[in-house]
Design goal:
alpha+beta; 5-stranded mixed beta sheet; 19% helix
Length: 191
């Protein structure tokens, strides 16, 4: 039996979209596509992914994609690597503008509107869904009850660096606190 959602297009040529009315879509990848996406995003599993919305004209040289991304994934805990379930329910918005160029160079100011993108020849819903999912998932998922503890590593005969060793002003702050306490207690050290 064929899944009716699989007959729907997942790629849209921007030149072929209606200049007057919205193009509605629903992207639900099959198990093989979800597995490949899970591997790309280093997930333990991707049980569900649904990107539903529309692409519509927004002025003469602009297309607006607005959708809802709903997903269920398992990520590895950043401390123990055990599976951590994640549920995503996010609004997705992209503004594709003809003639727009992304800023280039080492020190560039990014536009205030982070949905702004150059007009592509093809809008690929799989790419939009993958990017939106990657941005929506927690960066450092933790299993319930797992605490991050400090781990010190160094070679044989070498003292490991601690957090205070790499913070050069922590010793100055301790000295300032000591001087402040001494000044508050008076010149003889009495209150």
């Amino acid at each position: 039996m064929t899944d009716p959602d699989q007959s729907r297009p997942t790629r849209f040529r921007t030149g072929g979209l209606s200049p007057r009315k919205p193009t509605r879509f629903s992207y639900r990848p099959d198990a093989a596509e979800r597995k490949a996406l899970a591997e790309d995003l280093e997930l333990l599993g991707l049980a569900h992914l649904d990107l539903t919305g529309e692409i519509r004209p927004n002025g003469r040289d602009e297309l607006l994609l607005e959708a809802r991304l709903v997903a269920r994934a398992d990520q590895p805990c950043s401390v123990t690597l055990v599976p951590v379930p994640a549920t995503v329910d996010e609004a997705v918005r992209r503004r594709y503008v003809a003639g727009y160029q992304l800023p280039e160079g080492e020190e560039v100011e990014m536009p205030e509107d982070d949905t702004l993108e150059p007009m592509p020849e093809v809008i690929d819903l799989a790419e939009v869904a993958a990017e939106a999912l990657a941005l929506a998932l927690p960066l450092y998922p933790r299993a319930p009850g797992v605490e991050f503890t400090q781990a010190l590593h160094a070679g044989d005969g070498v003292a490991p660096l601690s957090d205070t060793d790499v913070k050069p002003f922590s010793a100055l702050q301790a000295l300032a606190d000591k001087l402040k306490a001494k000044n508050e207690s008076g010149p003889d050290g009495q209150s």
